[in-house]
């Protein structure tokens, strides 16, 4: 664990750590998604999942289960390799953000601002296209993270040049 080298870092240490933990949680979730996607790339695992969904004895008044089965059958197992690769790529970005913020690296503040800020227009479009409280929460949280990190990153850090 590194110690803050300036008053600004000391003052914002808790906020940076919270954001770093959030980034690591996203990393772990994406690694799990990649693991599942790579498993579904195999034809027998894919067919087993579709078969299980088709034969669940749950009441499905909204038809969500059948839409999921239809979507899976349209995609086929071959698309899950790409999903796994993309999930791992995003996991690497989130891991870099989280580790950099945990170590209080100035580059990580800007890296997180750029990476998170670049997704805000997409999140806003998705939320207005089909509203969801989770989407709204994610959008508000990401906007707050970007504003917070820009405020920190714009302040002089008092570090000596290497």
Essential attributes:
162 residues; transmembrane helix; elongated; membrane; 6 helices; mainly alpha
How would you characterize this protein structure?
Keywords: Membrane, Transmembrane, Transmembrane helix. Helices cover 78% and strands 0% of the residues. The chain is elongated, with a radius of gyration of 20 Å. It is mostly helical and 162 residues long. It is built from 6 helices and no strands.
Report how far apart the termini are.
20 Å
Strand content: under 5%
Gyration radius from CA atoms, angstroms: 20 Å
Nearest-integer average pLDDT: 83
How many beta-strand elements? Answer: 0
Question: Count of helical segments?
Answer: 6
Order of helices and strands: HHHHHH
Helix content percent band: over 70%
The secondary-structure class comes to mainly alpha
Largest sheet composition: none
What global shape is seen?
A: elongated
**Low-pLDDT regions:** none
